[in-house]
Design goal:
CATH superfamily of the largest domain: Intergrase catalytic core
Strand content: 5-15%
Number of strands: 7
Oligomer: single chain
Radius of gyration: 31 Å
CATH topology of the largest domain: hpI Integrase, Chain A
CATH architecture of the largest domain: Orthogonal Bundle
Structural class: alpha+beta
Largest sheet: 4 strands, antiparallel
Distance between the termini: 87 Å
Shape: elongated
Order of helices and strands: EEEEHHHHHHHHHEEEHHHHH
Number of helices: 14
């Protein structure tokens, strides 16, 4: 028997690798009489998932009992392999009662994760397995966002299992810093020119008045869709939706007040002539205290299809573009900020206009602000 020390932080653990591939684990300690003991506490086989961490845990348990005058219990344990599918089933039960996105999680698991890891023994999974998994997903042509979603789901399943002791003496192989998550650039770069915006508004004015007014509100306030319609609050089933109210519109000083929320700071936005015409028409036809509603007076949950149809007419092929280069309803907020930057408004004022909490969020518009540096540099010529 050729025993070798496990080394590292597993002091007192000895390993014997057998010819058939099995691994026996032994521990070294002194009994209550100070006599040295070397004892086998487990074995890793084709049907047993015993690890060096399990042996170390047993050593700590025995030492604790000896220090507290308790009789240590020594048993060679046969550890049943826990498959990743078992962790998933437990997590899914939890998710169905606590996560609105459980259906999406289930679809992702069955499509991407289960075929690779479902039948794998949990304790045999290492960070490198997930690095290879990540690479395979990229090779299939999946986006960085989709790949990241799979890795985050796996990490969440592991965390749930560890927290509820479904698996013991186990470190999450996707823990912080163990597997590099894909970098995602969600910063939208597309925004409308004034010529394009005029054409889109002209089309919408003829095809769908509600979408026209909503587009004007978004384009000329730079507000988030949820701040205008209250859609996000409704979708997330919060206690009360918070759409823009008529009490937030001050016709006397021509400003709109946006309240502070979890996504942004409060601010006042000036009302221009185009926006004023829309507000006047909406006020004349109001059905409740919400500035804009659907035909039944309820909250508008998503941008009507008429908007994207009008965009496609003005910008053919837009719907096929990469996400960050595609014009969407959110691009109206980006367009508003881009126009402000081109007019020379500084970053701090743009930050206040958009309600950003941090200036870093506003920095994406810096390159659009007219740069006087080059002009001044050229003027230094002798």
């Amino acid at each position: 028997m050729a025993l070798k020390p496990a080394g590292g932080r597993y002091k007192g653990i000895w390993i014997n690798k057998l010819k058939n591939g099995d691994i026996s684990y032994y521990i070294n300690y002194r009994d209550e009489n100070g006599k040295p003991v070397k004892l086998q506490v487990g074995k890793k086989t084709a049907t047993s998932d015993f690890t060096v961490r399990d042996a170390h845990a047993k050593l700590i348990e025995i030492k604790y009992k000896l220090q507290h005058d308790q009789e240590p219990t020594i048993k060679n344990r046969r550890v049943v392999k826990i498959k990743f599918d078992a962790l998933w089933e437990a997590f899914l039960t939890y998710a169905k009662g606590n996560k609105k996105s459980w259906v999406e999680d289930e679809q992702n698991y069955n499509k991407h994760i289960k075929p690779v890891f479902g039948n794998k023994s949990v304790k045999q999974l290492k960070p490198l397995d997930f690095e290879h998994f990540k690479q395979k997903l990229f090779e299939k042509g999946l986006s960085a966002q989709t790949v990241k979603h799979q890795l985050v789901l796996i990490r969440t399943i592991f965390n749930y299992a560890i927290k509820h002791e479904l698996v013991k003496n186990f470190i999450n192989p996707l823990g912080e810093g163990k597997v590099k998550m894909p970098e995602i650039d969600n910063n939208r770069q597309a925004y409308l020119t004034k010529k394009q915006a005029r054409k889109i508004l002209k089309i919408l004015k003829k095809t769908h008045q509600l979408t026209y007014h909503l587009t004007v509100l978004l384009l000329f306030t730079g507000a988030r869709f949820s701040e205008i319609t209250g859609a996000a609050a409704q979708k997330n089933k919060q206690k009360a939706a918070n759409p823009l109210k008529w009490s937030d519109v001050n016709f006397d000083d021509s400003t709109i007040f946006f309240k502070k929320n979890k996504n942004g700071n409060e601010r006042h936005i000036a009302i221009n002539k185009t926006l004023l015409r829309t507000l006047n028409q909406l006020y004349e036809n109001r059905v409740n205290d919400n500035v804009i509603t659907n035909s039944t007076g309820g909250i508008i949950l998503r941008m009507p299809k008429y908007f994207m149809e009008a965009v496609e007419i003005v910008i053919p092929g837009n719907k096929e573009r990469e996400t960050r280069h595609k014009i969407t309803a959110h691009s109206l907020r980006h367009t508003h900020a881009s126009w402000l930057a081109k007019k020379g408004l500084d970053l701090f004022q743009i930050k206040d206009q958009l309600g950003h909490r941090r200036i870093e969020m506003t920095m994406r518009y810096a390159h659009l602000i007219p740069n006087k540096r080059h002009k001044v540099t050229k003027s230094l010529s002798l």
